[in-house]
Amino acid sequence: MKIAITGAVGLFGRGLVLAFSTRHEVIPLTHTEADITNASAFESAMQQIRPDLIVHSAAIPDLDICEADPDRGFLVNYQGTCNVANAARQVGAGLVHISTDAVFDGKKRTPYVETDPTGPITVYGRSKLQAEEAAKSVERHWIFRVSVLFGPGKTNFVEKGLRKIAAGEEYKVASDQMGNATLTSDAGLKIMEVVEAGHCGLYHLANQGACTRFELARTAAELSGFDPAKVIGIPDAQMQRRAPRLKYSVMEMTALKSAGFSLPRPWQEALADYISTLKL
Question: Percent of the chain scored above 90 by pLDDT?
Fold first, then answer.
């Protein structure tokens, strides 16, 4: 297949490019090459490329940036997805849309399944939920909700903490945010597997197991040979961030299991592999 990937230099975009490049012709797209907020320009780019599939990972993923500038958040995350979906329909391409656990309200205390009601509490979550609806307008569509991404090529939650600790600083993280963690390369390979099988639909996707942000950062420190006491857990309310965070956003991968797919490995294994590649 010929596959166009938006947001190709983003954290997840890099993992998607690496994964799909193992078996397909990949055209990585940046904002310069295909601006998703410019409908005519993006459609023109797709008419030239004529991809079989568009994997759409371009977004503003920062909750606080979206909260500070809702118009821009919706322009990129929602309207941008509308433009990508329209272009996909025009060229007859399938669409993979990358979504998020932020579409939920965080009030549940058992894992969210794909059929659970949504109720985003942030601008980011609302923009991404509307983007899911836009993606569904494409006949062949896949929606993958992911959470707490880490992987090579771009600074992320895990690497940021390890570099602070390596510099002799403490790393303060929320102790009361429970969710999932996702290695970009693992997720990318699973997405490719699902797409190749032709199983369209909505999926939750992460490495197996739940963890707090504190547990994730502390485990990363231990695996790196650092003093885990340098990771300081504090209540989210003390983090002084603009956008509220979900207290609980653990996702159950019911759709993957129901479709007969194996689940990604546990997050601890994925984290250990990722850390072994870092040069701190």
Answer: 96
